[in-house]
């Protein structure tokens, strides 16, 4: 199916993104991806778009982990168009002989993609409406409807009592157990995560997303609505991007908080850049990604463009590396993603052993957290984030959840790892507060 295009100037007074997102609530399937390009130009050197919205499912694929990548391969072959959706962390079970038996309180499908009826793209100071031909007559009426939206934040008090799934003492015990694995030589590094949750929680999802995005201004922000399930994401991390025949992976490992005092803030950033433990974490994941990329890359094309570079966001400083390669034009996109999945920064090294220990030591199913959200384009490119710094919400169950973690290595001090988790949780807690 072809798409009909209409381009208008990007006049935020006429079509502000907040109004477009409010209008999108008329649909059961919504994916909104936002780069915050004006505030994150340095962080998003490979960015091409300001934002994109996909609504209305013309065709859908929803499945659990069993044979999920092959099902997506077939789906993409049939629908050579825009496809928006996500890979949950538990698709690891489709890449290796692994399992996910911890409790799942959110109940998202393991994999979900849809071919949208309507795509709205913000790029180059323009807004482009890209509608499937069958729906192209609705462009003008949709523009009028969006102009008539009067969005204003509800400013309602959220009814969320946020509780840690694991006590501080329980966290110390779990990380001590992981350190025993490391000292025995079972693994070098594990990304260990803990969940914070709220039951009987009622939130206005657009308000919470806008607040989270304002706090973080992350380059890979996203808002997803799938019927009664929502993702409100302020991710600073790219999982993988394909740009023609170039593959770009940008792992984050290494975190420091921001300070109001400029000189002290710069000192913390420099300290992060020079920290041997943080650099070691990052370099281990870079080596893992180089190995994963080599499975599909042209021989000799895997390169590290940036190693342990400090990028500064509103809430935190991060160490980010950029690893790239070239692929042949006949390499299958889904195979490339599968060879990298899940993101090494959210697992550890060696990867399979780390995922086994994660399943053993974590007490809830990760689900969409530490998976990836993004899209495939009609011309064969794709771009996916890493789902971190995110709130997951099941509106029917009134259950909200967010998870945070850190990399555990032989150099880890448990108290410092716990503190890093709290730093990462700060913006999420603030977004869920009144």
Structure description:
The protein is built from eleven helices and 20 strands. The chain is of the alpha+beta class. The longest helix has 19 residues, at 414-432.
Task: Write out key terms for the chains shown.
434 residues; alpha+beta; 11 helices; 20 strands
Q: Would you kindly provide a brief summary of this structure?
A:
By secondary structure, this protein is of the alpha+beta class. The chain has helices at residues 17-23, 68-78, 92-95, 139-147, 168-184, 205-216, 262-274, 276-293, 333-340, 351-361, 414-432, and strands spanning 3-9, 29-34, 51-63, 83-87, 111-123, 126-132, 163-164, 189-198, 220-226, 229-235, 238-243, 246-250, 252-257, 303-312, 316-326, 348-349, 372-376, 382-385, 390-394, 399-408. Helix 2 packs antiparallel against helix 9 (333-340) and helix 6 packs across helix 11 (414-432).
Share of helix among residues?
25-40%
Most strands sheet? 20 strands, antiparallel
- Shape, principal axes of CA atoms: globular
Number of strands: 20
Uncertain spans: none
Q: Helix/strand-derived class?
A: alpha+beta
Strand content: 25-35%
The end-to-end span amounts to 45 Å
Q: Mean of the pLDDT scores?
A: 93
Q: C-alpha Rg, in Å?
A: 21 Å
Number of DSSP helical runs: 11
Blueprint of the fold:
Layout: E1 3-9, H1 17-23, E2 29-34, E3 51-63, H2 68-78, E4 83-87, H3 92-95, E5 111-123, E6 126-132, H4 139-147, E7 163-164, H5 168-184, E8 189-198, H6 205-216, E9 220-226, E10 229-235, E11 238-243, E12 246-250, E13 252-257, H7 262-274, H8 276-293, E14 303-312, E15 316-326, H9 333-340, E16 348-349, H10 351-361, E17 372-376, E18 382-385, E19 390-394, E20 399-408, H11 414-432
Antiparallel strand pairs: 1-6, 2-3, 2-9, 3-5, 4-5, 4-17, 5-6, 7-8, 8-16, 8-20, 9-10, 10-19, 11-12, 11-18, 12-15, 13-15, 14-15, 17-18, 19-20
Helix pairs in contact: 2-9, 6-11
């Amino acid at each position: 199916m072809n798409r009909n295009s209409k381009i208008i100037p990007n006049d935020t007074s006429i079509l502000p993104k907040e109004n477009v997102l409010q209008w999108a609530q008329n649909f059961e399937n919504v994916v909104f991806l936002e780069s915050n390009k004006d505030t994150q130009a340095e962080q998003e050197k490979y960015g091409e778009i300001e934002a994109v919205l996909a609504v209305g499912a013309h065709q859908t694929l929803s499945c659990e982990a069993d044979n999920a990548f092959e099902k997506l391969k077939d789906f993409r072959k049939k629908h050579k168009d825009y496809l928006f959706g996500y890979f949950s962390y538990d698709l690891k079970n489709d890449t290796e002989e692994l399992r996910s038996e911890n409790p799942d309180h959110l109940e998202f499908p393991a994999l979900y993609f849809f071919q949208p009826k309507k795509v709205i793209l913000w790029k180059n100071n323009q807004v482009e409406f890209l509608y499937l031909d069958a729906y192209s007559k609705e462009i003008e009426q949709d523009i009028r409807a969006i102009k008539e939206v009067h969005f204003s934040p509800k400013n309602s008090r959220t009814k969320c009592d946020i509780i840690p799934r694991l006590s501080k003492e329980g966290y110390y015990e779990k990380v001590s157990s992981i350190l025993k694995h490391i000292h025995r030589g079972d693994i070098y590094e594990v990304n260990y995560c803990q969940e914070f949750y709220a039951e009987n929680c009622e939130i206005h999802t657009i308000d919470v997303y806008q607040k989270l995005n304002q706090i973080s201004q992350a380059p890979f922000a996203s808002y997803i609505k799938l019927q009664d399930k929502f993702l409100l994401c302020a991710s600073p991390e790219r999982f993988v991007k394909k740009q023609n025949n170039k593959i770009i992976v940008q792992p984050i490992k290494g975190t420091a908080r921001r300070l109001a005092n400029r000189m002290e803030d710069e000192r913390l950033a420099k300290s992060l850049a020079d920290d041997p433990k943080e650099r070691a974490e990052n370099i281990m994941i870079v080596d893992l990604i180089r190995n994963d990329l080599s499975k599909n890359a042209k021989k000799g094309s895997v390169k590290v463009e940036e190693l342990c570079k400090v990028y500064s966001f509103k809430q935190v400083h991060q160490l980010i590396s950029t690893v790239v390669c070239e692929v042949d034009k006949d390499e299958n996109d889904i195979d490339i993603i599968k060879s990298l999945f899940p993101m090494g920064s959210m697992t550890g090294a060696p990867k399979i052993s780390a995922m086994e220990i994660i399943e053993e030591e974590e007490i809830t199913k990760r689900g969409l957290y530490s998976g990836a959200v993004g899209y495939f384009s009609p011309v064969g490119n794709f771009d996916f984030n890493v789902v971190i710094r995110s709130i997951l919400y099941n509106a029917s169950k009134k259950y909200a959840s967010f998870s945070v973690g850190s990399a555990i290595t032989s150099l880890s001090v448990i108290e410092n790892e716990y503190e890093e988790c709290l730093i990462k949780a700060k913006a999420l807690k603030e977004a869920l507060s009144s």
